Structures are given as C-alpha cells and as structure tokens.
Target: HicB-like antitoxin of toxin-antitoxin system domain-containing protein
Amino acid sequence: MLRLEGMVQVTFRVRVVLEPDEGGFHASCPALRGCHSWGATRDEALVNIREAAAAYIESMPAHGDPIPVEGPEHLPSTQEEALTVTV
Model:
C-alpha cells in the first residue's frame, strides 16, 4: 500500500475490467473497491473509469486510506486493460 503526503503528482497503473452491459460497457477497477463506471462505447467507458479512478485515488489520503498497489500478477486479460491515472 502507498500513502501520499502533501502536494505531489503521482501516476498509477490500475487494472480495469470491461464488460458488455445493456447497450454499453461496464468498467471497474478491482483494486479500488466500489470504483465502477459505464459508457455507451468501450472508449467512453474507459474515459469515465479514468475520471472515476482519479477521483477515488485523490480522495484516499484525505480519508487516511492507503492506495493499493497492484503487482505484476495483475496483468490485464482479454477483458481487461491497464489504466494510467495521474493525481
């Protein structure tokens, strides 16, 4: 786990799971519990989950929560992508 102190800019790579969902795509970040989004297209779902993940990660230090760090064992599969988020 990583803790952020003060004003810094850090780039994170998190795994995103994309699944077809009722005329669009559901996107989630398993390492960020409860971080989900949706989009009418795959690209829209990725844009939306990137924004959701950035907001989620930014809020963690304020709540005293450690930021999960995913290791190489969490490489993306066919329904997953790596997402880079800068906060």
Summary: Helices lie at 42-62. Residues 18-86 form a domain with the Double Stranded RNA Binding Domain fold (CATH 3.30.160.250). The chain has a mean pLDDT of 79. The longest strand covers residues 11-21.
